[in-house]
Amino acid sequence: MRLPWAPLAFALRASCACSELNPPVGTIAPGEAQNVRVGVRYAAYGEEKTILITVQSNDPLRSESTYHVFARCPEPLIVEPKQIAFDSVRPGTSLEAPLEMKMPDGRPLRESEFPGLESTNPYITLGRVRNAGGKTIVSVRLSPQAPVGSVSGVIRLKCAGDEATMAVPVSAYVQGEIKVAPAILSIGPSDLDRAKTLLVWRPDGKPLGTLDKVEAPAGLVVEEVGREPERHRRFSVRVSNCEKLADDGEIRLMFRNQAAPAVVRVSRSSGR
Fold first, then answer.
1. Separation CA 109–CA 111 (nearest Å)
2. At CA 256, angle to CA 254 and CA 261, rounded to 5?
3. From residue 104, how far is each of 74, 107, 108, 129, 236 by CA, in Å?
4. Whole-angstrom Cα distance, residue 29 to residue 49?
5. Separation of alpha carbons 85 and 171, rounded Å
6. % of the chain residues with pLDDT over 90
7. Per-residue pLDDT tens for 94-137?
8. What tens digit of pLDDT does each residue of 202-214 get?
9. Is the peptide bond before 147 cis (omega within 30 degrees of 0)?
């Protein structure tokens, strides 16, 4: 910033409270320049931010200018995979997946470098961090007590001396003794004029019995429309209100004398 014929008074403003400008205000003598330090605070490793910096001054030709600053907080560790999905599992099943950690240069961690770990879901547990085969690994486990339906959580990693954390999402879908096809239903505004079909049945071939209750996300209507083939119950799912349609959720069909409901995961699709 220069103003060759008079001192330049300036004031800076950032679009995010997470940023720090130094100096935020000042005066520059003719022919001189002023460097401005832009600092950014992050809540998590890997976070990216774009900050809009507005410069106001007494420059008669250009009293206000804007600049975009892009910043990213690098991760102190490389974690693979970035997320863990156990997909559909039977009730009472215990599953395990490895989570590998290494330093940015690719080497395994020393014991003194092991991060603190925690899970946000009690049905997703962690084993002991260990070095094996030239790798630093921790086991992520899905508990056999996980309830029927969608199970999700986050593994948080925190390095010593740091406030920020790294996050690894974990998800699973526990399918009950009642079978549903499809187990995941993609639906959106484009389905307003057409219904989608669900088939529900027991794998042992026994009848399901009386339907006692239906729970569905806002914006959806679920109705039983018949049996096809025999002992398979058929349901239609249609959009009743696009504005109330949630991004995701579950349809739960509760039958009399059944210990667990039929659960269908609903994912909102893009569309007109």
1. 6
2. 25
3. 10, 8, 10, 18, 51
4. 33
5. 5
6. 37
7. 899 999 999 888 899 988 888 899 999 999 999 999 998 889 99
8. 877 777 888 999 9
9. no
